[in-house]
Structures are given as C-alpha cells and as structure tokens.
Amino acid sequence: MSTSDTAVTNSAEATGLGGDAFAIETFDLTRRYGDLIAANQVTLHVPYGSIFGLLGPNGAGKTTTIKMLTTMLEPSEGTASVAGFDIVKAPARVRRSIGYVPQALSADGGLTGWENLNLSAKLYGIPRAERKLRIEDALQFMALTDFGRKLVKTYSGGMIRRLEIAQAMLHRPAVLFLDEPTIGLDPVARRNVWERLLELRRNFQMTVLITTHAMDEADELCDHLAIMHLGKVAAIGTPADLKTSVGPGATLDDVFVHFSGGIIQEEGNYRDVRATRRTVSRLG
Predict the structure, then answer these.
(1) Is 204 helix (H, G, I), strand (E, B) or coil?
(2) What percent of the chain has pLDDT over 90?
(3) For the stretch 54-70, what's the b/e string if a residue is b when 16 or more beta carbons lie within 10 angstroms of its beta carbon?
(4) What's the pTM value of the predicted model, to 2 decimals?
(5) Which domains does the chain show, CATH number per domain?
(6) Other CB atoms closer than 10 Å to residue 135's CB: what's the count?
(7) Which of 10, 212, 231, 243 is the most exposed place for a label (fewest CB within 10 A)?
(8) How many Å apart are CA 200 and CA 203, to the nearest integer?
C-alpha cells in the first residue's frame, strides 16, 4: 500500500469504523471501449463520512468511473463496492444507497421546488406519511423554504443546484455523487453550496464524492483527492500531502499540472465545451 493509501486508511480508522469504514472501494476497476481504455485499473478507498474529490482533465476517466460506481455502466474488469454492496452483484442495493447529481439539469423548471421534491420522494419509495416532513426538512436544510412553491425556472443558479442536491439526499443516501457541483455559479452561490455539503457530512455523516475542475473547491471541501490522468489514478492523498509532494509553496493548481501531464484543464472536445456552456447557461 502506498503512503497516500495509508493516509486514507488511517483517516478511516480514525472514524472508529474499522475494517468496514469504506463507503466506496474499488480494485483495478477498468472500462474498455474496444481498444480504448477509459478507466484503467482504478483503485480507491473512500472512508465513510468523508468528502472525496476526483480531479483530472477532460477525458481522464472521471465520468466513466462515476458511471460504474452508480451502476450506469458495467466494468470490463475489476470490482467495486458502494455502501457495502457490489456494483455488479447487487446494483439495485447500490442505487437505493446513493444519491446522484449530474452536471446536466435534473430539476424540472415547469414544476415548483416542492413538486420536484415530491416526485423524487415517490421515485425513491418514501412512504406517503413521511413525504411532507422529508420535503419540508430538505427545503429548510437547503435554505429554500420561502421558494418551495415557486416554479424552478424562476430560481437562480445556486438555488437550482441546492434543490438538485435536496432531491438527491431526500432518501438519506449513504453516498452522494456530485458531478461539477458548482460549475457556472457566482462566488456567493458557490460558497453556499459548499456550506450545505459540509453540513451534509456533519449532520448526516454522508459520504460525498465530487468531480471538479475548481482547485479552490477541492482544497476547501475535500478530505482526500485522487488525480486521474489517461484513465489511471496518478496520485492520491490529502490536499496538503499532495501539495507537499510537489514542492515547497506548491498550490493545488501546481499539483494538478504536475500529475496530469501538464494538460490544461480547459481543454476538451466540442461536446465537452458545449455541455459545459449549457450548464453555465441554465444556472444563469
């Protein structure tokens, strides 16, 4: 086990959960598309109650890894468990144990915040007797109580993101996956989302895995980071340890460039740019 893997393991043991402390475990997780290897022997150990960041340039394998962990894509090789359930042998149990907020819009602008949450509650199978209280609690937690009866298309970008997180946490998942949670948001809205995510971890001991290109976000939120490059995990550790490994005075930007082969994070194909701009546009 590498030094950085040991750091993750020690953090897990500090929670007092012992050998069952990992909310996400992957071993040589691999996904092939013909001759292309999108994710190559990815091995991760994410402790319960932690916020874990996946960093890397476009095409590094982050999205493919998340799709496998959320059972949207079967691995070609390797194994993984989420919340204690094997992603291949028990995909339904995995799906009941997770929440997922994609970069693409997941809230219906033609419905109110309350109606979106009620629909999610039904889809998650939350008993009718519990729905009203769960929805009210979620709106209050995300500071959306005064806007619950308003159409989502009137919401600001930050409000939409908070509603989408509320939808994903409504059933109290053990693990929450977030793809670029603050892309397109202004600094105040970004900070608001960060605060809510930290509260989720603090109040519900929820494990959060995020992808982000924002180094300040990764530094602020994440207990541990994995930097992916060309489908592989190039480095893993705490933000502080990763910066130290690069050199005195190094920033996470320096870490990113060092371990991703110097690829500029804004690079990507036409589809990547279009998807990003659509997200920025709809979040206002």
Answers:
(1) helix
(2) 73
(3) bbbbbbbbbbbbbbbbb
(4) 0.83
(5) 3-97+175-185+203-282 (3.40.50.300), 104-172 (no CATH)
(6) 22
(7) 10
(8) 5
